[in-house]
Amino acid sequence: MNMVEKKIYSISPGYLPNFKSMFKKYVQFGGGADSQRYVKGRYFSNVYEMYVFAFFLGLKKETPFEITDDDTLVKFWEIENWKPQEIRDHLIASSIARTDIDLFSLQDLDERELTAEIGKLKNTIEKYANGGLKIIAALIEEDPDNAEQDTFFIKMLS
Amino acid sequence: MIINYISMLNFQCFYGNHESNTVAFSDGINVIIGDNGHGKSKLWNAFYWALYDQIFDSDRERFVTTRQSGESIFSDRAKKECAVEEFVKAEIKLEVVDSQGVRFEIYRMLKAKKLDDHNWEVAPTSSILIRRYKVTQWQKVNESEYRSILERVLPGHLKPYMWFQGEQVNSLMDFQNQTSLTQAIQLLSDITNYDDLVDITRDGKEKSAKELRIEQKRLSSDSSKSEAIERQVTNKQKDLEEEERDRESNTRNKEEAEIGFDGLINSMSDAQKRAENKANLDSLTNKRDANSQQLDSKIQALNKKLFSSHWVLKDCEPSITDFSGKYDKFLEHHYQKAALDKIAESQLPVDVPQPIFVNKMLADEACFVCGHLAPKGSDEYKHISGLLDRKIQSSTTFKNDCSSLFKKLYDNTTEYKNVISGIGSSISEEFSSITKLRNEISSDNKSIEDINKSFGELVEKDQSENIIKEFRKHKKNIEDFTDAINVNNIKINRITDELEGLKTQTKKLVVGSPNKAVEAAAEIFNKLSVLALSTRGLVFSNLVKDLEKSANDIYQSMTERNKSVIGRLNLRIMDSKTCFPEIVDSDGNSLAGSNDSNIRLVKLALMMAVLKSTSTWSQNYCLVSDAPTSKMSRNYAEGFYEALGKNFRQSIVITFDFVTETKKSDIKINNLGKVYKLNSVIPDGDRTKRDDLYTEIKELDL
Predict the structure, then answer these.
(1) Contact (CB<8Å) A154/B302
(2) Single pTM value for the model
(3) CATH class of segment(s) B2-154
């Protein structure tokens, strides 16, 4: 694994602290056999699942939320641990597409320059994910009953 | 949520069973009329008690808890009829429906034992039970969900404006009072975040200091805490055993009731019809149950498909296409450079042959390698001479060759193109399949209901009063014991979880270091509080402007009928935190001499404006008000009702306005829902004898 790959997979993106309660509400923390893991209202098995959902929602609706250096984000797990791999790859590829990184030049950058370029990728992931989280938060505020439905997240895709 | 109905059993003046004390509601303005002392406020209390475990004590003029209310919760007549050493029970049943059409039943119950004619032993707390109608039947809701459901019936922050008594309007909209102003503003925006920050930081130091003390105490007193936990574990285990015994007994009772029910069906005279019905019932029940199970599994699996079936990737094609474009450019540049490097690699290395030999070849005008002549000026000569000018070529390696990384991303994303394009139809198919199952279940339920009705008719044909009673008793027992078993299961699960929690606590009782971060947290919270206060004022003025505009629209609509009213509502900001309402003319000059009812109307318009600020509130929740238009003239009252009907999907107004049926035409109401009249009855007419009182609820057909 070269330096670029290593840096991409070590990205640990974050979310704004005001979304913390949403993760607490919808993510079923902890393990267990799959058949026993369904708990009403806990639709995601891991924080990254909800985060990935939010990323693609933000991307689909084209609603990036600007994240600045002043924002303190809540971090969770590095990308390399996210599953399944194919969805993680789509997330990385989509983020690259939405970032002004020159893929060819990336190969000859020194470490400092490389860190800056991969930082752009991290920022893009965070922009779309937090944009998606903002959409979810607004929907909950708009109709808390709807937010309790099993189909709440699926319907956001339509 | 929207309220379907409320029913009372021996609650205050509502003596008797639920059936005789039921008030059903529809969309629109539902009106409950009644003279003074005929139970209007007690009905208000019924709502309040069901949801908040409190009633309004008119003697003390404040809300009191069940514990404080004691025996006044129960109907005097029911208490009188209760024998010494027996129990009297009061119960409210409230059915509500959320914005998704899910129905909930909320039961609030209280029991008391009659010790003698004047003394009662009242249970210290009321109990609450919530059931959800899930697909085919009512199911007990897990107790952990109670708070959230009650909160959804009417969110706490909306309660003061959605459920109010006429007399409260002045204090609710007292804009010179900082508390009431803050409450209203909180509903309009994220200003609560600023308020929260202030609160959090104010409490921050206190809490972190307390946490530190707790931490230190814990470290120095492990053994006593362990003992306390141990005592709790022992008690919980006893509760668990008791609950399990109760479940066993209920299961037995349910089985007995089922046997009795089946036996009764088998004893019916019309054997052929009975057999047909029974076979159909069994078949339909099995089919319905299988479908219900399948539906449950499908719904449970639905969210997992976000990842297992890649639904989360729906519509991400554009960005993947963009990535492919970037990858194409990358490839082009990458391999162009690689090709150049390859060419360079194919040439002779620099300094081979060594310059000394090259110079000699030039002097001799001949190539030593191939033996050809290379006369000065010829191409051969130039080629040999060029060997001296060669520069060092870079190697083909990149610092970080990314070709395999990007190829992997490209391959992995390209492979899923077809999958992604089919996600939309895959989701639709899943939803169609769920809808189909739901429809089948609903249709089977209807058929099952018809068959049960037919059983009832068959039983009645037998013309035996005893059989009918027994049939109903068994049927009810089956339902009751099924419910009881569900409750047992919920409690057992809860106690088991609590036991697990206590065990975890015990494990955590390990000596550790005090948390120093708490002290620092207090300091940070304090600084944040200062910041939040300074920015709060900026947001405030904009909020007031928006509120003023919306309230004016409603106020104008309310006062259309009363031509004497001129002007508009102005919210004058006094400082960054307070403002008060006034009625002003077109030049902004205050109109003096506004009467009390006009001021009440202004305040009601403001309250509606607050609620209208988020459209879903007025659509998803019911506005309940006791005597909102008291002291108002007819025109004002009509204006209020018109605005109410226009702006709210459902409202319940308890009022003295329409005190007799003959006055019904006095006030016009559009979008009228159901209308009931309350009438308290004392059989021998002596109104001092409250222990004979009961309340008649009559629906009026207007």
Answers:
(1) yes
(2) 0.56
(3) alpha beta
